[in-house]
Amino acid sequence: MIVTNDIQHKKELFDLPYHKDQLEYCGPITPALADSFLTMGNTFIYQYFSNLDSTYLKSVFSSLVVMVQNVSQYAENSSGGVENQVFFRVKDDGQHILITTVNRITAKDKLSVKSIFDRIFAIPEQELDAEHKKMLFTGGGLGLIKLRKLKGKTLEYSFLEKKEGQIWLEIELKLNYGNT
Question: Please, what is the Cα angle at 135 between 134 and 138, to 5 degrees?
Answer without folding.
Answer: 100
